[in-house]
């Protein structure tokens, strides 16, 4: 991905450990507490339970998802304990009949007996394959439910959305996240910046995300900057920048004379004053929003005039931003003008100027721009990125798979909603060309899944759908991330996860990733898991209902 | 609104002052800092600027919006100052040419010279009428932009969505917000709970929102609770609750015999065990999810059996939740069964049992349920409420209206995007029946708008659209909320704002509020403001472009 040429800072990359916001255990649903109490009351609270966290359907009519939010989940689990004030609040909240001893139990609760098995953050993931498996005392793992769902759902959704934009624009274009003002409040905006970067964006406009997560921060000015000026009388630093004062009067004429397309332009003196002042402030980071009046008749010539002056003075201007109008057409005209100036006036810096486009861009807009042809270098994306307008929620669920070693199945008339019972391992099987062939779930006590072996992969629900696969490479998907009260893997940096996402995507065939009617990627179960699941299903399903 | 009968806590109401999360000034876009520097560099930073924060279009194809987020805006403005670490971060981020003195300026920045005029939080508001007007030093009010937009956008959007659900279900039904797991991360979920309550919901499932904002917290159990049981052997508290142990064996038969509809039912013993255990834990707050197996063949008889036992023991059960299937049909069957038991077994408590429905309910589902007829008392709403699926962003903007007493207008080829120049006052004019007739913007130096006077109201852009209005009551919409570094109005509690929202909505005609094709509410300008605006428009618009 390109290091886009927007006005860039020197924000050095720090690890995301800088974020010290601890998520409170009360950030959860009331029913978890009522269930915990009922478990405790039935003396079931310490039974060893296994829960799977997974989603049933990829978002955005796509066929892949980027898994994000793991680090936040682990930190939440690690810090999980109720403060005295929390317990006091719960004591007031729960019915008066609630036994006092339960609150004592709550105030000593911790996650020392919880184990977390998870897929690495940033990996491409698919429906039905658990992203996280939690094992631990029934009441404790139940209490973690909503917070884990909250932390994974939006993070994975927006990272996936970002990855789709990256696929749409290609690896060389710049992608800038602009979404803070349209997010679900302050922290929604922070999450958006963090996980959009993880999914493949290059930078954010959100300063706090820059500070907390070390994400590169970029941006230029807004229309208000231009309209705050009265005219050239507002340019006050003439003395310091004699070179600019000298050039000022003749510049526009000089420029106009050289450019056929720009004849008859009525450049705005207000805009020129604003650009000059901006150039005085950012002589080496000069990037202007050129559509306040008219891109072609005012913004472009004004920008070129000031840029030529900056080049005269030894600086290198950066480029322009378009925020309205026909972005394909305007970007082509702007690029042509830049190339003509570079050529006719021998100013090679003009060849390298960046064109940034914004204005309510969504994934379809990008595909349409690609189809029309355009000269945009970087895209600024806000609303559609952070709100995930096309599908604003990923429906992750948290389902009980086992209690005290006994498998649990939740039946449903909708076959897609039947849960996979018991503890499961998961593998990604790769073919000789390096592409992933299939994800396979199996039981822990099965024969190991080996590279080069002939492996039966079955559709989880449709008996007749099965195939033999001989993988060149077998990747076990789970690691134990948490045990004995400790996070027991090194947590990668945000940049490492971002690279992993692109690496993982590179192993997925293009037809699974395309925007329109992608081929579904296959998720399978082993023969033994298939039989185990279907036996349990038949055992639990009532007989005698007409299907 | 009803106090819904979901398992309820005793959460005493506290003021929202308990929330001590201070929003950091870096939660803003980079371009605001670059603009601030460019203003400072041109010595324009202290010029007195006026900015309007408003939206251009009501959300959800509706014709009204609830204004929310003001308290958070005021607290943000009040606390606005850069820490040493913030300034240090910005120093690294901005280009090396940036003058050092600017960072000194930033580190001493405060909002003592900022004035904020705003509409009361919770009021019904309409497009184009500024919700907030900020006056102060150009650089300072510019730096506040993104954070204010972030705080108002989602808060107002989700409060409006909540108010629409309230209109759809009517004043007597219960509305419970369930959205935490589908929100944009932890704080997105907190904002959702707060502003859904403000917009007319009765309760949330989010414990932290309950603790921080004093919102009533409700909920029951999930499917996992039921499927964690093996069977009746799991019921362990028989000794403590002899009455239940005695009734246990014969209960289901007894019930089934009495209910024609429930003949042939194969009740799940697993579910029965779960319900008994839940009843033991919550004998006076007994509310069960009854669709784990089959509502009619298992959940309903199991619930009735345990409820009858609880009534025998002197307790009062609460009701059931339906989370799948045909909610209209099932709710009717469940209600009929309850009424029959109440009647035939002389158990009047059964007449008062609550039926709660959930399962991906959106506004259209509610209208469809109303149309079909149903017996639901309370709705649990999650995803569609908090993500605002139908329109996940409200497009608030922050536009420059005046600098140093000189009006500013931003032109656009889209007439809806032309800004209203200068400082404006706003009034709501009411008719004799108490309904709001029109919102009117006027200039501060005009003749006062008086009750009983004949007032010319003009369409802001269409010359021929104007009318004389004689209001029975004139409500000035702005108060000065912030001046001299102080919030100078008492901030109402969340409950007061929630009441204001309903009160304000009650003055809006039903045809403006209906879900389908509502009548647009009129927003007008005074004659003098109309002329002022159009003179400035002509003065600034380039001549000679073909329209």
What does this structure look like?
Chains A, B: Keywords: Ligase, Phosphoprotein, Pyridine nucleotide biosynthesis, Transferase. Chains A, B: Residues 423-532 form the Nicotinate phosphoribosyltransferase C-terminal domain. Chains A, B: This is Nicotinate phosphoribosyltransferase. With 547 residues, chain A is α/β, with parallel strands linked by helices. Chain A folds into 2 domains: 16-161 and 392-540, Alpha-Beta Barrel (nicotinate phosphoribosyltransferase), CATH 3.20.140; 169-386, Aldolase class I (TIM Barrel). Helices cover 38% and strands 16% of the residues of chain A. In chain A, the strands form 5 sheets. Chain A has a 7-stranded antiparallel β-sheet with strand order 13-12-1-5-3-19-20. A 6-stranded parallel β-sheet of chain A has the order 7-6-11-10-9-8. In chain A, helix 13 (327-344) links the parallel strand 9 (319-322) and strand 10. In chain A, helix 3 (84-93) packs antiparallel against helix 4 (100-107), helix 6 packs across helix 7 and helix 10 (242-258) packs across helix 12 (295-312). Chain A is globular, with a radius of gyration of 29 Å. The first copy, chain A, starts with 29 loop residues before the first helix and ends in a 7-residue tail after the last helix. At the A-B interface, helix 1, helix 3, helix 6, helix 7 and helix 8 of A face helix 1, helix 3, helix 6, helix 7 and helix 8 of B.
């Amino acid at each position: 991905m390109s290091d886009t040429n927007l006005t860039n800072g020197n924000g050095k990359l720090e690890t995301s450990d800088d974020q010290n916001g601890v998520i409170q255990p009360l950030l959860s649903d009331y029913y978890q507490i009522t269930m915990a109490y009922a478990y405790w009351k039935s003396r079931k609270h310490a039974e060893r339970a296994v829960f799977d966290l997974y989603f049933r359907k990829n978002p955005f009519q796509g066929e892949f998802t980027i898994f994000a939010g793991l680090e936040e989940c682990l930190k939440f689990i690690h810090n999980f304990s109720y403060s005295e004030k929390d317990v006091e609040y719960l004591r007031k909240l729960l019915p008066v009949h609630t036994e006092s001893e339960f609150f004592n139990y709550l105030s000593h609760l911790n996650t020392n007996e919880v184990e977390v098995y998870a897929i690495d953050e940033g990996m491409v993931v698919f429906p039905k394959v658990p992203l996280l498996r939690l094992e631990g005392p029934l009441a404790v793992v139940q209490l973690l439910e909503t917070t884990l769902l909250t932390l994974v759902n939006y993070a994975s959704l927006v990272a996936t959305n970002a990855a789709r934009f990256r696929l749409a624009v290609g690896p060389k274009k710049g992608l800038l996240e602009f979404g803070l003002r349209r997010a679900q409040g302050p922290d929604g905006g922070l999450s958006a910046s963090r996980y959009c970067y993880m999914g493949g964006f290059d930078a954010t406009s959100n300063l706090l995300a820059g500070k907390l997560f070390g994400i590169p921060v970029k941006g230029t000015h807004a229309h208000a900057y231009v309209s705050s000026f009265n005219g050239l009388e507002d340019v006050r630093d003439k003395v310091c920048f004699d070179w600019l004062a000298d050039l000022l009067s003749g510049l526009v004429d000089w420029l106009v004379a050289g450019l056929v397309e720009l004849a008859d332009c009525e450049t705005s003196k207000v805009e020129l004053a604003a650009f000059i002042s901006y150039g005085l402030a950012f002589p080496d980071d000069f990037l202007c929003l050129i559509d306040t009046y008219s891109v072609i008749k005012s913004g472009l010539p004004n920008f070129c005039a000031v840029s030529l002056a900056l080049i005269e003075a030894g600086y290198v201007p950066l480029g322009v931003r378009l925020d309205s109008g026909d972005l394909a057409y305007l970007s082509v005209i702007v690029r042509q003008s830049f190339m003509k100036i570079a050529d006719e006036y021998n100013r090679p810096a003009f060849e390298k100027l960046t064109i940034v486009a914004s204005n309510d861009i969504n994934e379809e807009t990008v595909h349409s721009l690609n189809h029309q042809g355009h000269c945009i270098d970087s895209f600024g994306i806000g609303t559609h990125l952070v709100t995930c307008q096309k599908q604003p929620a990923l429906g992750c669920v948290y389902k009980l798979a086992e209690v005290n070693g006994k498998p649990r199945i939740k039946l449903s008339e909708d076959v897609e909603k039947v849960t996979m019972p018991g503890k499961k391992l998961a593998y990604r099987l790769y073919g000789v060309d390096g592409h992933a062939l299939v994800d396979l779930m199996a039981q822990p006590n099965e024969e190991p899944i080996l590279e080069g072996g002939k492996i039966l992969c079955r559709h989880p629900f449709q008996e007749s759908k099965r195939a033999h696969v001989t993988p060149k490479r077998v990747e076990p998907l789970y690691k134990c991330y948490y045990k004995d009260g400790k996070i027991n893997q090194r947590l990668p940096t945000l940049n490492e996860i971002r690279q992993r996402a692109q690496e993982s995507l590179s192993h997925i065939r293009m037809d699974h990733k395309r925007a329109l009617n992608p081929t579904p990627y296959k998720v399978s179960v082993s023969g033994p898991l298939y039989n185990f699941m279907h036996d349990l299903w038949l055992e639990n399903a009532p007989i005698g209902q007409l299907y």
